[in-house]
Amino acid sequence: MNTIGVDLGGTNIVCGVVDGEGRIICKNSCKTGISGGRENVLSNIFMCVDGLAQKTDFEDVSAIGIGTPGAVDKGVVIGGAENIPDWKGVALVSRVEEKFNKPTFASNDVTLYTLGEAIYGAGAGAKSIVCLTIGTGIGGGVIIDGELFRGSSDCAAEVGHMTINVDGRKCNCGGVGCFESYASATAIIKAGREAVKVNPESIILTLAGEESVITAEDVFEAAKRKDKSALEVVREAGRYLGAGIGNLINLFNPEVVIIGGGVSRAGEIILEVIDEALKRHSLEANLRGVRIVLAKLGDTAGIIGAAVFAGRELEKKD
Amino acid sequence: MNTIGVDLGGTNIVCGVVDGEGRIICKNSCKTGISGGRENVLSNIFMCVDGLAQKTDFEDVSAIGIGTPGAVDKGVVIGGAENIPDWKGVALVSRVEEKFNKPTFASNDVTLYTLGEAIYGAGAGAKSIVCLTIGTGIGGGVIIDGELFRGSSDCAAEVGHMTINVDGRKCNCGGVGCFESYASATAIIKAGREAVKVNPESIILTLAGEESVITAEDVFEAAKRKDKSALEVVREAGRYLGAGIGNLINLFNPEVVIIGGGVSRAGEIILEVIDEALKRHSLEANLRGVRIVLAKLGDTAGIIGAAVFAGRELEKKD
User: Fold this and answer.
1) How many CB atoms neighbour CB B20 within 10 A?
2) Residue A1's pLDDT is what?
3) Distance between CA atoms of B205 and B211, rounded to whole angstroms?
4) What's the whole-model pTM score?
């Protein structure tokens, strides 16, 4: 039996029909259209899934799984989805269920991304996994004994807002010293811009064209070319990543830590700088045996994870 | 059926016979005698349990549980027990099993303390709990779905060595900016001593007699009497406690956080300063609904937890 996985992002919706071995049979995508408000986002989800129904045998789909920003309780988005205006309070599960007449399940998008990577990606075979998605912010997901760990109210693994610098920078969340203020792509971009102000000769600037459009990719690419300013920025990010990931290793004692999200596209260099810093922030016993790896499934992890989730939840229900 | 719980500390061994409802039927204690080396510590454990055998019907004891500093793998202490010299490598379970001919189980002492508080103490009724023991260092234990969470190699919940200040103080563990360097009783004592140097009029000094013997209790007592220097020290500790506990709430999303160990004897004042700081370091959704409470069982939590552990492990084995 196949299931459908939907990955709802702030910019795009991607979805796919996934078989029992985690293979995507067909895919569809569209814009999220947040400026059109809640109902518009819902119609776009409907449209995206409808597109799949055209491409495949819809009768053969047993359930729909949806990964959404924020936390979900009893099928309703209860908060933490600030990048989709008016999304809090939407009865996501019942709206999709009504529309397609298929059992529907929803959870946090990073959580389901984690499930995808854990089962069919970089974590395959491991039972205890911590996954980070490092992009605009830093999201997290945790697998314990092969199962998603979501805490007492679906809010666990808020990795990005872990304090790593108690007297540090203010974060968008209102907190102080949060991990994502130091180690997200956003933080790397900011540091890259500062770096080219000090050293306009940096390859970062050559790659980007101008300061205002510097991306994290530019910084990593320049670092790979041994640009001194870029290497400094990347090492500094690695130092912070080491502190945050070290905390997760000390607390969750996982077999595998998966680095996903945009920053993971930097490749091996990111693993190297994390490795350097980890020894300072993780106990020897905890560090022994843990593997730090890059995510494998790219953007499809969210689709696959949502589809796997739907299948598992359907089984529990039966 | 009753079980025996043994709580092995750096200074004292305490043990007790515990019934199926978590009630201690009889207790015994002795010095750990670490200066006598590994074999001396083992004989003291034997002697302590032997004392129980004299006081109770030993036939009626189904199993023995032992909480030890460090991590335990397959009955052997594998590390992290630095305060008992030469303790690493001791085949604790088989040695005690041979001596008493009872099924024996061992795990980390703070973990079993957590289990005791979780089941029969401050966490009774909750399924998802984080427990901290704040004393010389900061230990931690986590309960998920009513079960101990120990990670992939019995090293989870190393709360004290979570980085909360990435560019901060060096810790005994070799790391930097560890939670326990800022918020343990040791850190509070250090800050108290610094405070009376600046302000020798402080009640802290009156209570302690002289600077070199200031305890965390003196600092808390002076704070309760509104001593300005003491209040500053306690608020500062609370600020750090808030950062560390905030992280745990963001990551584990527990129903209850239990504050145990020596510092918990300070009472309500410690909860107040933590409360103040938590809002800055924990997400609103995670903070909603979580209860921060003081441990209830005092020094008996370790005995009760070890006894409960023995009963549970015996059941799994059968």
Assistant:
1) 12
2) 84
3) 6
4) 0.94
